[in-house]
TrEMBL record:
<dbReference type="Pfam" id="PF02082">
    <property type="entry name" value="Rrf2"/>
</dbReference>
<dbReference type="GO" id="GO:0003700">
    <property type="term" value="F:DNA-binding transcription factor activity"/>
</dbReference>
<dbReference type="GO" id="GO:0005829">
    <property type="term" value="C:cytosol"/>
</dbReference>
<dbReference type="InterPro" id="IPR036388">
    <property type="entry name" value="WH-like_DNA-bd_sf"/>
</dbReference>
<dbReference type="InterPro" id="IPR036390">
    <property type="entry name" value="WH_DNA-bd_sf"/>
</dbReference>
<dbReference type="InterPro" id="IPR000944">
    <property type="entry name" value="Tscrpt_reg_Rrf2"/>
</dbReference>
<protein>
    <submittedName>
        <fullName>Transcriptional regulatory protein</fullName>
    </submittedName>
</protein>
Amino acid sequence: MAESPRPVTSEVLARAMRTNPVVVRRTMAGLREAGLVRSEKGHGGGWSIARPLDAITLLDIYRGIGAPGLFALGHRSDNPHCLVEKAVNHALDGAFDAAQSLLLERFGAVTLAALSADFHAGMLAAGHTIDLEHAHD
């Protein structure tokens, strides 16, 4: 979206990310509520970034999409009376908490401006031009 001079539709974003426009709209709604993007209706409407790229971090985005679980592996509670399950959960609690804290700290240190700079450097090095609909080809 930062590369587009005008708002980008959910359909264009969905093609770029190889997903469904409904998924894009649902995700963008959370980002809009967080003040990270804005939407415009009607002809020529779509999504645009609401703040400068250096003012948005990965942590902002993570929170804007509802702070989903970071790890597929984690606390099991299938059988809360199982002593093995309790022992495993107890042993892993500190490790998962520390890993999550470290990851969220890193999210807070990475701005969209830094990602954009890396993206531009990679595109230049590969001899590509920026085309949102084909960025993932």
